[in-house]
Each structure stands twice: as C-alpha cells, then as structure tokens.
C-alpha cells in the first residue's frame, strides 16, 4: 500500500550554505509532502561562492545512522547524493544490498557547480565502487560530465549522451535519468531531460531554459523530488513530468531569495525550494 506521506531518506553531505546536499533534500522532500530523514556522509563548508572544506565522516558513524533508521523506520524511498570516499561508497552499497529499499535514487555527485571536487575517488577505485552502487539503485541521475565519467564514453552532445545512457542502463540494470543542463548548446531555448529504461526506451521531457545563476543544488533538488514522488507511487516518467516544471519555477524564484553576494562573479545562488508554498 502506498503511504499518505512518503518517508524519504537522504544519504548525502551537508552544505552549510543550505542550497545543496541534505539541506536541499529536506526542503524538497517537505515541499513535495514527504517526511525527510538524513544519514550525513560528510560535512562541507560552502556558501554561494564555493567550497572551502570537505570533511567526510567516519564510516562507522555513517553506518550507525543508516542502521538506526532501518532498525525502526520504514522507508518508502532513499536518495543518495555526495558520498565523498570509496570507503563510504562501499559502506552505503553494502547497506543497500542488506536492506533493499523499495526505491533507490542515486545522484552520482562528483563535483560542485562551483567546480570544486566533492569526492576523493580515483578512476580505478571509483569504477568498482560506482558499479556496485549502480546495481543497488533503481534510478541514477547523471549530468553529462558524470555520465562520461561513469561510462568512459563521449557525452558532449545529446544524441551521444543518450547512447551512453542506454549503455549504462543495460550494463547495470538501472533506469537512467539523463540531465541536459550542461549541454553545450547553452544558448538553446530548451533544456532536455530523459528517462532511459533498461530496454533502451527513451522518454524525453523538454522545458524552457531559465537564464539564471541561481542553479546551485538543482541536481540534489531534482533527485529528491523524484525520490519523494516515486515513494508516493508515481512512475519515473510521471515523476519527471511533475518535478521538472517545479524545478524551473524554483530556479526562476531563486534570485529573489537574496542569499549570498550575487554581485560577485563566483556567485551560484540556491533555488527557492519553498516557492510553491509561498506563491
Ligand atoms: N538553465 C536551466 N533552466 C531550466 N532547467 C535547468 C537549467 N539548468 C539545469 N536545469 C535542470 O536542472 C536539473 C539538473 O540538471 P543539470 O544537468 O544541471 O544537473 P547537475 O549538474 O547535476 O545539477 P547541479 O547544478 O546541481 O550540479 C535538470 O532537470 C535540468 O533540466
Ligand atoms: C554537500 C553537497 N552535495 C552536493 C552538491 C552538488 O550540488 P551543486 O552541483 O549544485 O553544487 C554540493 N555542492 N554539496
């Protein structure tokens, strides 16, 4: 039976500035009517200008958070964001294999939108660790650079990326939500996203491109919205149809939040997760 209030766990890093990571996840889960929980993997010191420090938590502390939740609380969906180290990737993969949550959304966070690295995972170690996580996930949400890194294939234009996404889905038996925010066609009027199924079927959704630098945390926000909607029983295609226009509105409303010094060229402000409640 689908619960009235989906219970959603975010396994992710903390963003002190509140725009990405577990902070974005909790705001998004609440905005979509869910009950949010967190297992924090790393503390980051960051603001709208960039990342100053990254401090991964000890594996035991992360495992204790996960086990505490699983021992007492049923989860309708799990969203995974920044993991930070190969050890934490392995611990989370092991926990997923043991608890087998009904819905697992994996946002393969590697680099912040400021360009700062959020994982200390080399390519060789990373390949096996990502592979194990991908197998335990139901949906993976790469942007174009992350897809290229996960597959070792070119993903600079949309058709090449769709091909690489089909390969990733088939190889790891996971549905792919391919995000087009990083497409080179920066001047294009629309941004595509696509659900790519294991059998290669593609369901594409296009939305108007929002011209704003309030784009910090869009990936975290989208994956949390999709997890909450799937936890409430929606298909990935229906969840994307609802989340994408909501996220574009959150980006449009972001600058009015007046969070951070937008006069500096390094500014990447947060989206407004609460825009729908306020309007
Ligand atoms: N300029 C934009 N206008 C409208 N939607 C956008 C824009 N940029 C990104 N999006 C949407 O935001 C979501 C995240 O896409 P993107 O490809 O930027 O992922 P990401 O790089 O993981 O995000 P982040 O900025 O958090 O790193 C997608 O649904 C994408 O369509
Ligand atoms: C703790 C944490 N998790 C994820 C991101 C990625 O978000 P973005 O790519 O929008 O900076 C981030 N900056 N910080």
TrEMBL record:
GO terms for molecular function: ATP binding; hydroxymethylpyrimidine kinase activity; phosphomethylpyrimidine kinase activity. InterPro entries: HMP/HMP-P_kinase_dom, PM/HMP-P_kinase-1, Ribokinase-like. Pathway: Cofactor biosynthesis; thiamine diphosphate biosynthesis; 4-amino-2-methyl-5-diphosphomethylpyrimidine from 5-amino-1-(5-phospho-D-ribosyl)imidazole: step 3/3. Residues 15-266 form the Pyridoxamine kinase/Phosphomethylpyrimidine kinase domain. One of its GO terms (cellular component) is cytosol. The keyword Kinase applies. This is Bifunctional enzyme, hydroxymethylpyrimidine kinase / phosphomethylpyrimidine kinase. It comes from Micrococcus luteus (strain ATCC 4698 / DSM 20030 / JCM 1464 / CCM 169 / CCUG 5858 / IAM 1056 / NBRC 3333 / NCIMB 9278 / NCTC 2665 / VKM Ac-2230) (Micrococcus lysodeikticus).
